[in-house]
Amino acid sequence: MNLFELTCTLVNTDSVTGNERACGLLLRNYLSECGFSVTMIPVEGDRSNIFATHGRPKVVLSTHMDTVPPFFPSTEDEEFIYGRGSCDAKGILAAQVEAAKRLRAEGVGDFGLLFLVGEETLSDGAHAANEASPGCRYMINGEPTENKLAIGSKGILRVGIRARGRMAHSAYPHLGESAIDKLLDVLNELRAMPLPVDPVLGPATLNIGLISGGREANVVPDEAHADVLIRTVNGTEELRDNIRRMLDGRCEYEFIRETPAIKMAAVDGFETDRVAFATDLPNLTRWGQPLLLGPGSINVAHTDHECVRKADLIRAVDLYCRLVRDLKAKIED
Question: Where residue 324 sits, what CATH number does that domain have?
Answer without folding.
Answer: 3.40.630.10
